[in-house]
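User: Design a sequence. Structure:
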């Protein structure tokens, strides 16, 4: 199984102006769409792109492990580097589609989009916009939100 770091490496190699915030959201959307496309029900989610989870932070969906690795870049663009990870056909399909749809947006744009979506909102519950949170974004919420778009 892939890790979030494999997916991040692919986006850094293939995306445009990848900042830390943009990388978080691209990885989140890859996770979300893969989960939605390759599971049949929100009640029986067994197929995931990677095992790492996302939390509903102030700035949108964030994987703490990915945050720790790339926080050194702050708001700066992460230098492109080649990707030495191989993905299967299904993984490549999702990666390419996510890049095609979301790469045109900045990290701030993607944060704003994420803030409008139910998985992040549900995980935030009644928190104020500036209140920190480590609430996990539920896979069932992800499946329902993106599955409704298919």
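Assistant: Done.
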């Amino acid at each position: 199984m892939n890790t979030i770091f494999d997916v991040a490496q692919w986006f850094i190699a293939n995306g445009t102006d990848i900042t830390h915030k943009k990388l978080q959201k691209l990885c989140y959307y890859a996770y979300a769409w893969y989960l939605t496309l390759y599971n049949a029900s929100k009640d029986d989610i067994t197929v995931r792109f990677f095992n790492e989870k996302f939390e509903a932070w102030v700035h949108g969906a964030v994987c703490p492990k990915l945050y720790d690795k790339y926080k050194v870049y702050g708001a700066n663009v992460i230098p492109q580097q080649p990707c030495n990870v191989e993905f299967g056909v299904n993984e490549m399909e999702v990666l390419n589609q996510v890049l095609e749809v979301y790469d045109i947006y900045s990290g701030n744009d993607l944060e704003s989009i994420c803030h409008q979506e139910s998985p992040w909102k549900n995980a935030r519950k009644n928190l104020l916009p500036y209140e920190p949170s480590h609430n996990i974004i539920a896979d069932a919420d992800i499946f329902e939100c993106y599955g409704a778009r298919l």
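The chain has one domain: 4-147. The two ends are 25 Å apart (CA to CA).
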